Amino acid sequence: MTKIVDITEKLCFEENPVMQIGTLEVEVNADAETMLRLMGAFGNKGELQAVEEALNLIFKPEDVEKICNIKKGKKKLSAKSLMVIVQEAMALVMGEDEEGEQ
Fold first, then answer.
1. Are β-strands 71-72 and 75-76 bridged in parallel, bridged antiparallel, or unpaired?
2. How many other CB atoms sit within 10 Å of the CB of residue 29?
3. Residue 54 and which of 69, 77, 87, 99 are 20 to 30 A apart at CA?
4. Element (H or E) spanning 56, and its range?
């Protein structure tokens, strides 16, 4: 007889996590299909092109617009900061960074 192992209890079917950036809160798309697409995006493209694709996979279109328009005083968000947002969102989805969790 074939051995059957039930791993259902080990799986996560939670709601999407929310990332806070200053006063802005954005939902992070955390499904498995999105993460597989993200891995492919970073494997096949240049870094800035991959970041653009990642933003559109991870966040809702209206949240991408809000993120890209973040300002501190008169200064706009830098490209480096945008990359940090994508990296932190990916870490949040993968469960690598539990810091700042409420």
1. antiparallel
2. 19
3. 99
4. helix 47-58
Question: What pLDDT is recorded for position 97?
Answer: 53
Contacts of 41 (CB under 8 A, 6+ apart): 50, 53, 54, 57
Question: Comparing C-alpha atoms, which of 88, 89, 70 is closest to residue 29?
Answer: 89
Asked whether the beta carbons of 17 and 92 are under 8 A apart, the reply is yes
- Torsions phi, psi of 63, nearest 5? -75, -35
Q: How far apart are CA 54 and CA 56, in angstroms?
A: 5
pTM of the predicted model over 0.85: no
Nearest Cα residue to 11 out of 30, 27, 38, 37: 30
Lookup: tokens for 77:
């968000």
**What pLDDT, on the 0 to 100 scale, is given for residue 51?**
83
Quote the tokens at residue 54: 């990642």
